[in-house]
Amino acid sequence: MTEDLTPAEAYAAARARNAERATALHPFREMYDFDLDPFQIEACKALEAGKGVLVAAPTGSGKTIVGEFAVHLALTQGRKCFYTTPIKALSNQKYADLVKRYGADKVGLLTGDNSVNGDAPIVVMTTEVLRNMLYAGSPALSGLGYVVMDEVHYLSDRFRGAVWEEVIIHLPESVTLVSLSATVSNAEEFGDWLDTVRGDTEVIVSESRPVPLWQHVLAGRRMYDLFEEETDHGGRGASRREVNPDLLRLARTENTRTYNPRERRRGKMVREADRERERRQRSRIWTPGRPEVIDRLDAEGLLPAITFIFSRAGCEAAVQQCLYAGLRLNDDEARQRVREIVEERTASIPTEDLHVLGYYEWLEALERGIAAHHAGMLPTFKEVVEELFVRGLVKAVFATETLALGINMPARSVVLEKLVKWNGEQHADITPGEYTQLTGRAGRRGIDVEGHAVVLWQRGLDPGHLAGLAGTRTYPLRSSFRPSYNMAVNLVDQFGRHRSRELLETSFAQFQADRSVVGISRQVQKNEEGLEGYREGMTCHLGDFEEYARLRRDLKDRETELAKQGAAQRRAQAAGSLEKLKPGDVIHVPTGKFAGLALVLDPGIPAGRTNGHRGFEHHDGPRPLVLTAERQVKRLASIDFPVPVEALERMRIPKSFNPRSPQSRRDLASALRSKAGHINPERHRKNRAAAADDREIARLRTEIRAHPCHGCDEREDHARWAERYHRLQRDTRQLERRIEGRTNTIARTFDRIVALLTELDYLRGDEVTDNGKRLARLYGELDLLASECLRDRVWEGLTPPELAACVSALVYESRQADDAVAPKLPTGNAKAALGEMVRIWGRLDALEEEFKINQAEGVGQREPDLGFAWAAYQWASDKGLDQVLREAEMPAGDFVRWCKQVIDVLGQIAAAAPKENSTVAKNARKAVDSLLRGVVAYSSVG
Q1: Can you say how many angstroms the Cα of residue 848 is from the centroid of all Cα atoms in its chain?
Q2: Would you list the DSSP string of 244-261?
Q3: What is the model's pLDDT at position 857?
């Protein structure tokens, strides 16, 4: 090829090669046995030119290469590089990768659990650790040249996302930022913001997957392609993808079929011919079972596979189903290798704990090449599954969606059982962004020629909807940034109030809010034009119809207001009657799912609160726990009592009664029916409607009848135009309020937080008081509550296990429904301290309401959750794992994770507590030592 070049062209090519050899990128490229992709080269060149970069690319495309080039540049220039990740598991994984490349002496690790070689030139850490270093002004920041923020799209996370923005805003200007993100639809907007707060930032977006992805639907024995064969499955070209007509035909046939073989027609059995037709149809189409799916994938060479099941119990059940079906995916050599690795990784776990953790059943599944992966598993077990999967020794993993969040576990195939998942409030369809993230695991670069995403057929499946999920790249990055109490005192301490306010106005949240105002302003202008037209339509020749319409609206509003007052009065009477209930009262539940006779087990009055308190609104008044005549134990709400309730009878509740025992419930329900089954409750009499005697309503009706427009023949036509005018005017005012509300929203929230902290003597102007300095060391959702507990000496004199129980209430959040039975608590000082914590929270909650700090907007203190207190107390008291897990009714993985979080906060409390005349700091350290044992100590990932 070079022979065809002119001398000038050959000279220019030689100069370009020599110039490229002189760059830092040249030796870096030679470190890899594959050539870099164009987007990687573009990003690396921008970095070497001194620019920050935002790289948005699909999962598995190799965007971490850009982060590793930042590490290479830092070492070349004699500077430091911090590599941040969102979760400890990713930090551990990245640390191992970098140690393998650069050696243990040059790489450090800082997470909540581990501190290894923290002064190294390359340090891998969780994002929270870097945030804390920035606020503390850590000397480790000296010489920092590059920060890599892996999985930066985590800033959308409503619980932890603010940390990413804090880091981006507060990093010194001299630091070059490398942001690595999944494919997001508004990467340019995010890049514009980075350009504003960090300086020159290049946005590199790559849409193409390194391994093409084929989409399928598995129905019965047949694997259907989602799109027609001749179209572009890899998503690399611009050709239009049509849904497979065979799949559309199948969906039409199945979804319109209403035949049911169990029905009887006019009392006769269904005809044999119909049964035969049903049998033939069902032989073509069904939802394959889990072992059947894995067997099918194995036969077609599509393993290893990850099957996403949106439930922990479902994952465990899937493994058991495969074992019962006799599925074996490993030969004898692989089985032996699995056993060696597992025994080596779990050697430090005591034998008695192995039985509790279900080790032998877990090992049997691993030897067969099958495993579950979810947050309820012991972290050590999860790490082993990840390692075996990457080595090809586990070929079928059943996982919850948490596996999709960054862990490096690519597969040849990904299976989705359903396209619906529980989002914490309801069952909802998965979004295109979630679908892309889940299926992004399919296709291993350098191993597979193509990846496969398989959706299992379910009755009602819409292939068009599935195609929309598979073909849409709508995963917008939305800021979840909100100021917190800890953030406020740290900012004021470093920058003063005025500068802090300006810094917060540079957040991505405010950037997005300001941009959204432009579109709203345009809508306001359109609405104002529409109002003019409506005003003409309601013009009446007899008089001022706007005035007449206002009188009609006032009448309607007054009637509505009186109706609401009546309803509120009835609710108050009902709530008052509920407060009088005592355990053993027999009542009649008037409405709802559990209407009928019931026995009060617990009145359900929230501790430490009064009826006027905001906490009552959250809990909707007293929530009695009752046993129904049908043997169900349920916690009722005020909605079940539209009218006051009275005790019909009294019954003794046996001390031995256990609400979890079916036999106990059956016996007590039988006694309830015998005691009170014959009693008929009195019907509640309705009161006379308040509107009938209201003077304001009478006055308005008189004025309406006397108004000139009341006699107009076209009155109702004018009224319809007036109603449209009123609605549009109301919508326009709402839009105007939104514009006002979105301007300086973050700064206004900060002002309210500062006002509350000033009231509590954490701040005095630009001065941070001693109380404020203590709060600055406490990070977490309940930072202010923890600080107030230290100030009020709530934890003084507690033993280490008692302190662990109290601190658990600051971190734990129950996964159970609100109607769960009240948690078991330690007795004595610990119980009193927990009660005092709830009372302090009530006081703070009332203050937040006064200062308009809204928990619904992600700001403020949630109520402490006492659900882990007994488990933390037991474990810190040196009780065995079997006893603790059994009494807590909690998976080992959850138990370890909550213990790690309690340990983390105990460490903060030890640092923040007074050093003189206080036992808290010493006992917090002892509590850490008490908790950090057994499964908690040997689990390296939190």
Answers
A1: 24
A2: PHHHHHHHHHHHH----T
A3: 63
**Could you read off the pLDDT of 638-654 as tens digits, one per residue?**
788 888 888 888 988 88
**Nearest CA to 128 among 158, 88, 96?**
88
Cis peptide before 304 (omega within 30 of 0): yes
Report residue 317 as tokens. Answer: 């059940």
Alpha carbon 325 to chain centroid distance?
A: 35
The model's pLDDT over 48-79, given as tens digits with 9 standing for 90+, comes to 898 999 998 877 778 888 999 999 999 999 99
Give whole-number Cα distances, 841 to 77, 607, 619, 835, in Å: 51, 11, 15, 10
Judged by DSSP in three states, 398 sits in strand
CA distance 311 to 564: 42
- pLDDT tens-place string over residues 621-638: 788 899 998 888 888 887
915 is written with which tokens? 């050093």
Query: What SS3 state is found at 420?
Result: strand
Residue 348: the pLDDT is: 81
d(CA 613, CA 621): 10
Judge whether 646 and 576 are in contact, CB under 8 Å: no
CA gap 193, 541 in Å, rounded: 56
Strands (E), 150-231: 176-181, 201-205, 213-219, 222-225
**pLDDT greater at residue 730 or residue 406:** 730
Residue with the bigger pLDDT between 268 and 245: it is: 245
Q: Are 217 and 455 in contact (CB under 8 A)?
A: yes
For the chain, the straight-line distance linking the first and the last C-alpha, in angstroms and rounded, comes to 56
The separation between CA 800 and the C-alpha centre of its own chain, rounded to angstroms, equals 32
Beta strands in 94-160 (DSSP E): 107-110, 115-116, 122-126, 144-149
Our measurement of the distance from residue 802's CA atom to the centroid of its chain's CA atoms, rounded to an integer in Å, reads 30
User: pTM for the complete prediction?
Assistant: 0.69
Q: Are 652 and 612 in contact (CB under 8 A)?
A: no
Closest by CA to 61, choosing from 233, 224, 193, 209, is 209
Select from 104, 101, 89 the least CA-distant residue to 65: 101
Question: Using CA atoms, how far apart are residues 88 and 129, in angstroms rounded to an integer?
Answer: 11
Q: Is the pLDDT of residue 596 over 50?
A: yes
- Measured from the Cβ of residue 31, the count of other Cβ atoms closer than 10 Å reads 10
What is the C-alpha separation between 350 and 538, in angstroms, rounded?
83
Q: Which residue has the higher pLDDT, 524 or 168?
A: 168
Contact of 550 with 718, CB cutoff 8 Å:
no
Higher pLDDT, 272 or 184: 184
664-676 pLDDT, tens digit per residue, is 889 899 988 888 8
Phi, psi of 292 (to 5 degrees): -65, -40
* Angle in degrees, CA 538, 541, 547, rounded to 5: 55
**What does the chain come to in residues?**
942
| Closest among 865, 834, 859 to 847, alpha carbons compared | 859
pLDDT tens digits, 351-403: 888 888 888 889 999 999 999 998 788 888 888 998 898 888 999 999 887 66
Task: Compute the half-sphere exposure of residue 336: CA atoms within 13 Å on the CB side of its CA.
Answer: 3
Please, what sign has the CA dihedral across residues 572, 577, 580, 586?
A: negative
714 CB-contact burial (10 Å; exposed 0-12 / middle 13-18 / buried 19+): middle
- pLDDT reported for residue 547: 83
Phi, psi of 289 (to 5 degrees): -75, 165
Q: What is the DSSP letter of 496?
A: H
Check pLDDT > 60 for residue 147: yes
